[in-house]
Amino acid sequence: MIRSGESTIWTELDFDKAGKQVGRLHLPYSVTRSAYGNIDIPLAVIRNGDGPTVLLMSGNHGDEYEGQVTMVRLIRDLEAADIKGRVIIMPAANTPAAIAGARVSPLDDGNLNRAFPGNANGSPTWQIAHYIDSVLVPICDAWLDLHSGGSSLDYLPFAAFYQTGEDKALDARAEGIMRAFGAPRSVRVTAAPDGRLAAASGHRRKIPYLGGEYGGTGSVNPDGVSITYGGTLRVLAHLGVLTSKRFDIKPAGETRLMQLGGHDYYVHAPETGLFEPATRLGDTVKKGQLCGTVHFVDNPERPGVPVTFKRDGVVVCKRHFGRVEPGDCVAHLATDI
Question: What is residue 333's DSSP assignment?
Fold first, then answer.
C-alpha cells in the first residue's frame, strides 16, 4: 500500500556516496505491453567532500534542447575531482516528453512545469514533479532549470529568475546566480509564478532557482548551448562547487538587465488563421505598434486582423509556427531596468 506523500520512484544511486555515479530513476509503470515495467529517467550524482549541492536540470519540456545538450555534456565532462560538494544532473526531467520531442508527455499529456508540487500517486508527470519537489530540491542549495521556446516559440537567449518580492535574501541569492551565469540578457520576472511552476517550488523550498530561455523552434541553437554550458560552469564556480582549473571558464561579459511583468507584456492571436509577424526578435516597439496580422487563406477576400502590442518593450519571443488559433502567444516583450 502506497501511503500518501511517499514517492514510488526508486533508484540504485546513492546520493551520499563519494565519486561519480550515472544511472537512472525508476518510475513503476504497469501497462499492457509491460506489466512490471519502469519509466527510466537518467540522473547523475557527482560528489566530493562537503560543500553546496546544486541541481542541474533540463528537459522539463521535452522539445527544449539547448539545456539537454549542455547537461549530457556536463555529465561526461565533470568528474568528482573537479568539484567540492555535490552536483545532481537531470538531463531529461520529463523523459517521456524528451524522447517524444514534445512539450508534454505522450503518456498523460502532462506538462511538468505545470505539475508542481506533484502527486506521489498521480500519473507519471505528476509523480516526477513530486520526486523533484520532495526528494531532490530539499537536499539542494541552488537549482538551475534550463528552458527554451520549444517547437512553437523562438527566443532571444536570456537567463531569468522569478522575484518573490517578499524574501529579499532569496531574491538576492537568485539574482547573484543570474549575474554569475552571465547570459547576454538577464531577466527579472516580477509577475508572481504560477504555483504549479518549478520556480514556485523553489520559492516554497527557499531555494534560489534560475531558469531562462535559450533558443527555440524545436532546433538546437548553438549560441544557446554555448551560453548554457559556460553559464552553468560559472554558476558552479560562483557557488564554490567547481574548483578545478582544467575548465576554460570565461568571465561573464556584459549583460542587459531586463524585466518581464504581467499580461500586458504578452500578445495573443485573436482568431484562427495565418499569422504574419511585423517585427523581429530584438526589435524595440511601442504600445499600439503592429505586432502582426492574422490572414484567412480560406476566405481571402476578408481583410486581415491586426494584432498590436499593449506596451513599450523589446521583442524577446515570437511564435515560430505560422498557423494560429485564438489564445496562441505570438510574441512577448521584456523591458529594460
Answer: E
Domain assignment present for residue 137? The answer is yes
Residue with cell 552536483: 87
**Residues 225 and 314 placed together within one structural domain of the fold:** no
**Total count of domains within the chain:** 2
Torsion over CA: 134, 98, 155, 196 (sign) = negative
Residue 13 and residue 63: Cα distance in Å, rounded?
Answer: 27
pTM (2 d.p.): 0.95
Task: Note whether 110 and 203 are same-domain residues.
Answer: yes
- The CA-atom distances, in angstroms, between 258 and each of 306, 311, 337 are 27, 15, 5
CA distance 148 to 215: 5
pLDDT (tens digit, 9 = 90+) per residue, 250-290?
A: 888 899 999 999 999 999 999 999 999 999 999 999 999 99
Task: Among 260, 291, 325, identify where a domain stops.
Answer: 260
Grid coordinates of 247: 575548465
